[in-house]
């Protein structure tokens, strides 16, 4: 009888935990600051308003996962330069506008914290725009105005490629000896001042350390790292070192933790390179089909799912990055920036936007209070958006 009662109590406890976790997650305004679905959609032509069986995001699955606001990344690679990059950025924004026009009852473009809250209250997904790569302004300050007028709420100063006015993490680490300059040039300083004046958030996820330090010495507004992890746990050039994390916190900014396996697990890249070498003929064929390396890699993993899954880190490693940063700089400076649809691999159990509740559940297990979970899921981003917009 005692054993029976113990089992009943145990199961009741699990049920109560699940209910409490679900309530915390669904009542929060979950905001993800980085998703690459737009650039993929231009190639695949899928309708993101309908349930998809490829990729990580669509409006149906977003609803299921409790996602209330999404910053859509407007991105193009370094093959687009002056004369083409700005045009491509506008093409991606056009695709988001088209999605919103097809489903006005389910998604709405927002620019402010007030509009975000109203949209969420209406049961719609609040869509925001982040431009990933300073090369898309083509060295023109007036293009910043144009993109801001279309809804850009943050600009990632560089992607992996440097601009004429700011250097990237990749170039500073891998090509530092051949760079014509490091950090911000005079034009770069003008860009920072312009962004501060317009209330466009400065994103420091891709820039190198020299650029990072130059920006922190100059900016008058809180910054973000829209999709980065902790260098101390995974020493990748795209992750932030402890001094950088502390600098972001001192500035009042927020680090939004990336889900990509390569930024979470220091052993992933070597394993992935061996996997790609093994499947090179298959990958080359897929690149010819998609004309896009990332999409080809994603498709390759889908074809070889069992093998690819063996390379993925456990969900606990993502939680470890979140917890590490929280313990270092506080829960006021951490958020979620998945990088969904922008990479070929994420932790086991995180396959799409339907899986966000698993993160909330893990934070509850670690003893995180509801107020801190709410900050991580949305509160910190809303505060920072208000601080930059001046409202």
Gross morphology is globular
Number of helices: 18
Helix content: 40-55%
Largest sheet: 6 strands, parallel
Task: Return the CATH class of the largest domain.
Answer: Alpha Beta
User: How confident overall, as mean pLDDT?
Assistant: 94
Structural class: alpha/beta
**Can you identify the CATH superfamily of the largest domain?**
Metal-dependent hydrolases
Q: Provide the succession of SSEs.
A: HEHHEHEHEHEHHEHEHEHHHHHHEHH
**In what range is the share of β-strand residues?**
5-15%
In angstroms, what is the radius of gyration? 21 Å
Give me the CATH architecture of the largest domain, please: Alpha-Beta Barrel
Q: What fold name stands as the CATH topology of the largest domain?
A: TIM Barrel
The total number of structural domains is 2
State the low-pLDDT regions, or none: 5-10
Number of beta strands: 9
Q: Can you put this structure into words, describing what you see?
A:
With 391 residues, the protein is an alpha/beta fold. The protein folds into two domains: 342 residues, Metal-dependent hydrolases (TIM Barrel, Alpha-Beta Barrel); 45 residues, no CATH class. The protein is built from 18 helices and nine strands. The strands form two sheets. Strands 1, 2, 3, 4, 5 and 6 form a six-stranded parallel β-sheet that branches. It has a three-stranded parallel β-sheet with strand order 7-8-9. Helix 10 links the parallel strand 7 and strand 8. Helix 9 runs parallel beside helix 10. The radius of gyration is 21 Å and the shape is globular.
């Amino acid at each position: 009888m005692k054993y029976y009662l113990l089992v009943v109590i145990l199961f009741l406890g699990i049920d109560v935990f699940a209910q409490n976790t679900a309530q915390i997650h669904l009542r929060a305004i979950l905001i993800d600051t980085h998703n690459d679905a737009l650039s993929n959609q231009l190639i695949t032509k899928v309708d993101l308003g309908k349930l998809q069986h490829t990729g990580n995001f669509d409006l149906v699955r977003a609803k299921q996962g409790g996602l209330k606001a999404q910053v859509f990344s407007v991105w193009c690679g370094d093959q687009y330069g002056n004369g083409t990059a700005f045009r491509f950025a506008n093409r991606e924004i056009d695709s988001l506008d088209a999605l919103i026009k097809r489903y006005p009852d389910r998604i709405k473009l927002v620019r402010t914290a007030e509009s975000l809250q109203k949209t969420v209250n209406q049961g719609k997904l609040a869509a925001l725009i982040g431009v990933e790569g300073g090369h898309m302004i083509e060295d023109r300050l007036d293009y910043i105005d144009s993109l801001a007028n279309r809804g850009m709420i943050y600009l990632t100063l560089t992607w992996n490629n440097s601009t004429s006015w700011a250097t990237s993490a990749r170039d500073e680490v891998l090509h530092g000896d051949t760079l014509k300059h490091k950090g911000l040039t005079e034009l770069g300083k003008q860009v920072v001042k312009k962004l501060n004046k317009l209330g466009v958030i400065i994103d420091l996820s891709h820039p190198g350390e020299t650029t990072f330090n130059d920006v922190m010495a100059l900016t008058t507004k809180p910054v973000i790292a829209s999709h980065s992890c902790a260098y101390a746990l995974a020493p990748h050039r795209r992750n932030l070192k402890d001094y950088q994390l502390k600098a972001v916190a001192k500035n009042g900014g927020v680090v939004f933790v990336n889900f990509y396996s390569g930024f979470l697990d220091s052993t992933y890249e070597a394993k992935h390179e061996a996997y790609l070498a093994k499947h090179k003929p298959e990958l080359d064929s897929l690149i010819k089909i998609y004309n896009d390396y990332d999409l080809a890699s994603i498709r390759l993993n889908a074809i070889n799912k069992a093998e690819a899954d063996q390379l993925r880190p456990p969900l606990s490693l993502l939680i470890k990055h979140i917890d590490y940063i929280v313990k270092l700089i506080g829960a006021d400076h951490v958020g979620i920036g998945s990088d969904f649809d922008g990479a070929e691999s994420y932790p086991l159990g995180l396959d799409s936007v339907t899986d966000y509740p698993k993160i909330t559940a893990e934070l509850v297990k670690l003893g995180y209070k509801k107020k801190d979970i709410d900050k991580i899921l949305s509160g910190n981003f809303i505060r920072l958006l208000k601080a930059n917009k001046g409202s």
